[in-house]
C-alpha cells in the first residue's frame, strides 16, 4: 500500500472537511425533505489546518505544473484518506483541482465511509453511502445511494443526502419507486433521540 502526503506532494490542504457539492437533485426523486439539525456536524476545527495523508494500492497523479482546466489524480484500491480526526475510506477516489486552486473529489465503493470528531465535544459524526462528492468551492457534500448519516444517537437516511457545512442545512430525499419495484420502501427515515432532562437539582428546583 502506497502512502502520499497530499499537503506536501499535491497541494490538497483542507480537502475533506465535510463540505461537498450542491447539484440539482435527480428528477427521479419523488420526495424532498428539508431537515434542520442545530449544529449536527460541526467538524473539528483544527482538522482543517492539518496535512492530508492518503493511502492506496495504486495512484496516478498529474504533474502539478500541468496547464489545463483541471488537474486530476486517481487513487484506487483500499483508499484511506486522513486529516486530523477525519477518516474517509473508499475503493476509489478521483480528485480534481481547478486553476483557482479549488478541489473537487468523488469517492466510490461498495460502502464509502466517513468519520470525524465534532468540535468541542467528545462525539463523532459518521456517514456512509455508495458514492460521495465533495466541492471545496461551495463547501458542500453529497451522498448518493443508500446514504446514511449518524451523530451520536441521532440518525438520518435516504437515497440522497446533501449537507451545507456553513448553514448546517440538510436536504434528504428518497428515490422514486418504479413500476417494477412498487413494493420497495424508498422513504426517508430519521431517528432523533430526546434530549436528557435536567434533574431538579440542576434546574434549581
From TrEMBL:
- GO cellular component terms, A-Z: cell outer membrane; outer membrane-bounded periplasmic space
Q: Specify where it is mainly localized.
A: periplasm
**Which residue ranges are recorded for the region named Disordered?**
174-205
Leader peptide range in chain numbering? none
A Gene Ontology BP annotation from the UniProt entry: lipopolysaccharide transport
Q: Which Pfam families match?
A: LptD_N
> Which molecular function term from Gene Ontology is one that the record holds?
glycolipid transfer activity
Q: Record's InterPro entries?
A: LPS_export_LptA, LptA, OstA-like_N
Q: Which NCBIfam families does the record match to this protein?
A: outer_YhbN_LptA
PANTHER family of this UniProt entry? LIPOPOLYSACCHARIDE EXPORT SYSTEM PROTEIN LPTA (PTHR36504:SF1)
Q: What is this protein called?
A: Lipopolysaccharide export system protein LptA
Q: Which organism is it from?
A: Nitrosomonas europaea (strain ATCC 19718 / CIP 103999 / KCTC 2705 / NBRC 14298)
**Top-down, what is the taxonomic lineage of the species of origin?**
Bacteria, Pseudomonadati, Pseudomonadota, Betaproteobacteria, Nitrosomonadales
Amino acid at each position: 500500500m502506497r502512502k502520499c502526503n497530499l499537503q506536501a506532494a499535491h497541494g490538497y490542504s483542507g480537502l475533506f472537511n465535510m463540505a461537498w457539492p450542491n447539484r440539482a437533485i435527480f428528477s427521479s426523486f419523488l420526495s424532498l425533505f428539508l431537515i434542520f439539525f442545530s449544529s449536527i456536524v460541526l467538524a473539528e476545527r483544527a482538522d482543517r489546518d492539518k496535512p492530508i495523508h492518503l493511502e492506496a494500492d495504486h495512484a496516478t497523479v498529474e504533474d502539478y505544473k500541468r496547464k489545463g482546466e483541471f488537474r486530476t489524480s486517481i487513487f484506487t484500491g483500499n483508499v484511506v484518506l486522513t486529516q486530523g480526526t477525519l477518516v474517509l475510506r473508499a475503493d476509489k477516489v478521483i480528485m480534481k483541482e481547478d486553476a483557482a486552486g479549488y478541489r473537487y473529489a468523488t469517492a466510490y465503493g461498495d460502502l464509502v465511509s466517513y468519520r470525524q470528531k465534532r468540535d468541542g465535544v467528545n462525539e463523532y459524526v459518521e456517514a456512509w453511502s455508495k458514492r460521495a462528492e465533495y466541492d471545496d468551492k461551495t463547501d458542500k457534500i453529497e451522498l448518493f445511494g443508500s446514504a446514511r448519516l449518524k451523530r451520536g444517537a441521532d440518525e438520518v437516511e435516504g437515497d440522497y443526502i446533501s449537507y451545507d457545512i456553513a448553514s448546517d442545512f440538510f436536504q434528504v430525499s428518497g428515490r422514486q419507486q418504479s413500476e417494477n419495484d412498487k413494493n420497495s420502501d424508498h422513504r426517508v427515515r430519521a431517528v432523533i433521540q430526546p434530549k436528557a432532562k435536567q434533574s431538579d437539582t440542576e434546574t434549581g428546583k
